[in-house]
Amino acid sequence: MRRPRSLVITGASSGIGAALALRYAEPGVCLALTGRDAARLAAVAERCRAAGAEVTADVIDATDRDGMAAWLRGVDDRAPVDLLIANAGISAGTGGGVESEEQARRILSVNIDGVLNSVYPLLPRMQDRRRGQIALMASQASFRGFPGAPAYCASKAAVRVFGEALRGDLAGEGIGVSVICPGFVKSRITDANGFSMPFLMEADAAARVIRRGLARNAARVSFPWPVAAAVWLLALLPPGWTDGLLARAPKKG
């Protein structure tokens, strides 16, 4: 969808979500934004309004199924949603040890339930209209489990495969589905990484790539290509060949 006029972006208070909101903000566009930090979300909303967009911005926990459903239906009642970007997500590492059960459950809940809570309130309405687009934020980490971030990798793998399957199911109903698989992008998440991140991108550059991919309804928006190629090779090779290499790689703290 080249020029969506009504968009929902979750996780819009910082990073890629904020950059996407600013990238789509223009006169005639309705943006509905959610995020975890009220002050940062309000700042993003004001910048989008300054660009001419009509903006609704509310702090909602993506894991709140009923709250998300009520909010999304209200947004859709006011301006039928053309494009949903389910971007909300969290990350954390093991600090070189073993991930705690509490942390793993929290990451899986936010990153998977948050996507489901964003998609399903709008999906029947898009089906009734026989139009719309859904974009799900996965990751290059969705293609191979990396030591140091087991729950994060698992959550993004689930999101990617869910989106790929949903794309096939909805292909005949006029609804596009894309999965977004970024490498390292400057954000509050990557700011916590204490190691070198190859091909680290600015959030605005990532947003430009994503918007171009969504405009052509790409099945995958996977970037940057050197990281995508390296991860594709890691996923292709037998784990026994690559376990030793990955065991020596830096771990997320």
UniProtKB/TrEMBL annotation:
GO MF assignments: oxidoreductase activity
Enumerate the UniProt keywords alphabetically. Answer: Oxidoreductase
InterPro entries (alphabetical): NAD(P)-bd_dom_sf (IPR036291), Sc_DH/Rdtase_CS (IPR020904), SDR_fam (IPR002347)
Where on the tree of life does the source sit, at the highest rank? Bacteria
A single GO cellular-component term on record:
membrane
- Which Pfam families does its entry note? adh_short (PF00106)
Question: What's this protein's family per the entry?
Answer: Belongs to the short-chain dehydrogenases/reductases (SDR) family.
The protein in question is named SDR family NAD(P)-dependent oxidoreductase
Write the lineage as a comma-separated list. Answer: Bacteria, Pseudomonadati, Pseudomonadota, Alphaproteobacteria, Rhodospirillales
